[in-house]
Fold each of these.
Amino acid sequence: MTVLLRIGLTPIAFALVTWAQASFGDRIGGRLIGLPVTTGPFLLAVCLTSSRLTATHAAIGVTTGQMAVIVFCVAYAWLARSAAPVTTTLASLTLALGSVLALSWLHGPWPLAAAVWAVIGVSLLLWPWPARRPPVPATSGTGARGADRPPSAQTPTDTPSGRPAGSAKLSPALTRALISTCVVATMTTLVPVLGARPAGVLTSAPVLLSIILPSTHRLRGASGAAEVARGTIVSMAATISFSAVLATCLPRMAVAPALLLAAGALVTLIVVTPLIERALLQAGSALSRPEPVF
């Protein structure tokens, strides 16, 4: 069972993420990437193979590591406006590492979750890109809309050879699935060696985002990468609730009810966070609106 979780669940999830990004746009792809598609299978495997205390420390580590994802996405959105994908990725990864080190002095899941939620709120409030832009269908490589877009902003269907979109996306999707599977399998195996909390932190590292954001940046421009980043950090609010609730419940109850409560918190936040994002969008628009001159 745990072997199936390690090598089966994560690549299926990322295949769905890749399909959703291609079919429904970068924002929806980011929303799905921000869900616990890697950390969820990792925590589930640890819960099924280790003690509840070990799983608790792993969940705290995952909560800590989410800060790296948030900082990476926010830094990428800001830096992509003026820097190339490689430079933006390296600088964002450096800032993400620094954020996790700065957060290491906090203990307990809720102080950690509160710190990450605060960064999410401030980031959305001060987002450097317009929060809403007309979606660009993945199949609109021709016609008036496709002709108006610069090459850097064209979709993956705009291939020089005119091949179908599926052939252009097969390799990236396979790469993401293989990497995500290796991350989950490796970290669950190394829990006894590294310790549960460091393994949880490493599982949360933005490895896949460091592939997805630069590739989107090259294909659809900096604004497309910013759409993925914004969608990711919106969903991360729910992902953090999953790991924080799990870390709180595991010392007090059995694994199954703890997982159910964590899943309930995840679903609740998935429903609520779009409303919070809308409120922050309105507040950010009010802050950026120039004062009337009398």
Note: Residues 87 and 162 are 30 Å apart (CA to CA).
Amino acid sequence: MYKSIELDYNFKDLENFLDEETLTIHFDILYKNYLNRLNKVLDQNHYDFGYSKEELIEHIEEFPIKDRDTILYNLGGVLNHERYFTILDPHSSLKKTPFLKKIEETYGSFSNFKEEFLKVASYLVGSGYTNLVLDKDGKMLIINTSNQELPDFYGFYPLISLDLWEHAYFLKYHQKKEEYMQNFFNYLNYDEINALYEEKTKEIQSL
């Protein structure tokens, strides 16, 4: 069965960004509910858990049509949450890295990138995520995905995923979603994001 990820920080470490109650509900209940439902439907199909969660997307046709939507929805809930939580960091520090160099080449500056990211995020209607992604040519794009859709469904690989479901921020920020979105950039693990960027770039170049 697929296991829950382990975080490198305690919830209270992020208290200036998100309160402990929000993080507890979000991670321990909502994220793990997606994981449990995914494991349940896969187990009912006698799946041997031989694929990574990302590989499961590419092999969805191996499952009965009646279960594919359930699998993909809950898989999206798992991966979107894992990608969100693993790039949070109470000791955020933006450094000169290949990731930052690519940001500056694409957007002119990190400040310009942040402004564009927040603008795209403001266009999202309802629940979903705003993502910085790489396409199959290694180009950076900022896209919105609805509900628990994954950028992977469209051939993209996410580097930064901002959760814009209300449960992600409402207890602390209430209607001030823009403040939550702004603060997000002060609590990102840019070392992890750079590692993701370098990993995917090498994969793209090897194709």
Note: The longest strand covers residues 128-134.
